[in-house]
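Annex B, item 7. Sequence and structure tokens for protein A, then protein B.
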Amino acid sequence: MIIDGASKLKNFRHSKEHLRKTEYMLEVIRKASCCVNATIDQKMLAIKELEGQYSVHVLCEALNLPRGTYYNRKRRENTVTSYVLDDEIIKPIIKQIFFVSKKRFGRKPIQYKLSELGYRVSEKRVCRLMKEMGLEVEKPIYLAEHKKAIPRYYFKNHLNQKFEQGTPNKVWVSDITYVKVGMQYFYVCVVLDLFSRIAISYGI
């Protein structure tokens, strides 16, 4: 097999880069404050001490630390934990999220929104701070209305469980339900023809 000059040059450069990388990795292993069998925390500290002197790729490979783990840890360093946050710092943030949601968000949604903003706060703590500020979730109107006494009118049973009808438009039936769309509830009323089971009409 004949190898041309360009291929030889390419192979030479590749070998040279590989050798240089190996030399850098050996330097990292000599300078690092931990060995390759150390914990992830120890490796992260050692990489931090050598950052700027070598590339992240070389540092991670030399200490046998996956780069994905390294970058995930770096992102978490920018997250503020609940232990270093004072209640008076978190309170206005919780209050703002609560009122932006039009008083609909409870402790779980607020905790989720806090995590999106980079604040790691427990659900229990969010609940406590909401109580201290007197923030109570407003219940949907339909729940409050449903608790009221509703007059019941009973009519004679004309159908007697005969749901299979042989002719169209002989028996129509109707019922209502409610569905949630976004943060609102809508009542839906549908009229069916028992013969065809087709919705003749509906109202929302």
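Protein B:
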Amino acid sequence: MTKKEKELGIADLPGVGAATAEKLKESGFETLMAIAVATPGELVEAAGVSEALARKIINAARSNMNMGFESGDELLKKREGIGKISTNSNMLNTLVGGGFETGGITEAYGAFGCGKSSIAHQLAVNVQLPREQGGLNGVAVWLDTESTFRPERIVQIAKAKGLDPMEILKNIKCVRVFNSDHQMILAEKVEELITKEGLPVKLVIVDSLTAHFRAEFVGRGTLADRQQKLNKHMHILMKLADMYGICVYVTNQVMVKPDVFFGDPTVAIGGNIVGHNSQTRLYLRRGKAGSRVAKLVDSPHLPDGEAIFEITEEGIMDAK
């Protein structure tokens, strides 16, 4: 951040008085960057200004700040600061490059009972550990769309690690999600937990990402609307991950493509919208003797591979 950015506040932008600045801040537009990357429609809705004034405010914010170009060596140095959350399984950790990364979205998809929610419970505990133990000293936020969060499971995992279950549960902020609009609003509200309440949020879990979108948008005629809405939701999550150094872990449902005659016909819901917005993608399935298999489907820097793990009473473990 430059000296100019530090000195210039939202109220200093042309057309933004004290009342408008307050409305913008209440709607989550607290920084020049937030204003600069907003759409005119978002500012119109947030502050009640005209579209012409909204464009003027956005352009002023863009011209008064560094828009973020960085050299490759700067990005490499930034990558060195990325946090990683351990899964408890050495094989699974190795598959994803040492743990689930902050600064991006990791998607896990698979059929019912493949271990998606079990990984979520493990991450919600492990994110609270010190860095040297595979955590980030952080708080977890869980957007629960299918009533999958189980505090009893957290207690089991915490006790297995010798942790105070009640303290661990206090640092998991869970909210039941009732429809896709509610889900999108809650994702935006996570920013307030960080900026207004000062919580060190380092993990956001959405379990599952597409359940409500799939239920509400039925039929091919609604597909375009569903994908557009889902795309906006993914961008909110991506912005959270990037701006605040958060690991966003989303689970996804699957369907079977009837036109696939060779290989696995299972594909994730949401298509390219979810796939392209996810930094790392894992396909989970049941293995032999109660084990689970995680296949790395996509990553910008990791090789394809598989990891075998087990779900035990103590949490995620390497398969014996």
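Comment on protein B: The longest strand covers residues 305-312.
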